[in-house]
Design goal:
Strands 1-2-6-5-4-3 form a six-stranded mixed sheet. It has helices at residues 31-43, 51-55, 62-70, 79-98, 156-185, 189-196, 223-227, 250-263, and strands at residues 6-14, 20-26, 123-127, 138-147, 207-217, 240-247. Helix 1 (31-43) packs across helix 8 (250-263) and helix 5 (156-185) crosses helix 6 (189-196). The radius of gyration is 19 Å and the shape is globular. The mean pLDDT is 95. By secondary structure, it is an alpha/beta fold.
Length: 265
């Protein structure tokens, strides 16, 4: 339901060499949409079916357990920036699923510390055409940056592009392996097998697609600054998608979403 708030503006920007940058907008959700969003958002950190067992022995309510032991801190640094980053990654994960990819979830539930980001490629989306490997199968690797406060654009789309370039050679294999181990640990063997299909592109080729996204609050949205971004030195510049999602008062929305996710557990 919350994806009803996310839509294209119809505006396309261009990088310095003429590569397209799609611009989408996130509207403020209604109370009903926020509640639905909070429910699905919470599952990325702690499944509802597990929360009572996990909080057992702590003396904490469901809400207090999530706020104090699971979700990034609302005010103590670096908690707010981790919240912003997680929110942006999860929003773009939803976007990638809208494109028809399978996006595995669960890495946020396995943080050693709630106030840290997860290492590796931000988002992996898988599209498998059939039972046997097909060259038209696709792996989409997205890097996401957030700027949810401030009044001056900080060049973060370029940072996402540069990080995405590193994924092509350096991070793909390790991130796929970590994901597969996570799935096996959870006895999700069919999904682990689906990941296996993408681990040997030499013998089983597929299309590798890159993505770089910026989620930015309205006060920092700068069309000119964003258009100064470049994919010239990207290792996969022939197959990279660039996306900007803008919205008003996004950090306030983030805090409202985390509060709802805790209080409605």
């Amino acid at each position: 339901m919350h994806l009803e708030c996310l839509g294209t503006t119809g505006l396309t920007l261009f990088t310095s060499e003429g590569h397209e940058i799609e611009v989408w907008e996130l509207a403020a959700p209604s109370a009903e949409q926020l509640s639905s969003w909070a429910r699905s958002f919470r599952q990325n950190y702690c499944l509802d079916e597990d929360v009572d067992r996990l909080r057992a022995g702590t003396g904490l309510s469901r809400a207090d357990y999530l706020i104090n032991l699971v979700f990034p801190d609302e005010s103590m640094k670096p908690g707010p920036s981790i919240r912003a980053g997680d929110f942006a990654e999860l929003l773009i994960s939803d976007y990638v699923e809208m494109l028809g990819y399978w996006v595995p979830r669960g890495k946020y539930a396995e943080k050693a510390s709630r106030n840290e980001s997860v290492k590796g490629i931000d988002i992996l989306g898988f599209r498998h055409q059939g039972v046997a490997p097909d060259p038209e199968d696709a792996l989409l690797a997205f890097e996401v940056k957030a700027q949810l406060t401030g009044v001056e654009y900080a060049g973060k789309l370029q940072v996402a592009i540069d990080d995405s370039s590193k994924d092509f050679y350096l991070r793909r294999g390790t991130t796929l392996n970590a994901l597969k181990r996570r799935l096996i640990d959870r006895s999700r063997f069919d999904e682990a097998d689906a990941v296996s299909r993408f681990q040997n592109p030499t013998d089983n080729p597929y299309r590798y697609k890159s993505g770089a996204a910026l989620v930015v609050t309205g006060t920092a949205y700068d069309q000119v600054g964003i258009s100064l971004s470049s994919v010239m030195h990207h290792n996969n510049k022939q197959d990279i998608s660039l996306l900007v999602v803008k919205g008003e008062n996004l950090m306030d929305l983030v805090h409202h979403l985390y509060r709802a996710a805790a209080n409605e557990a």
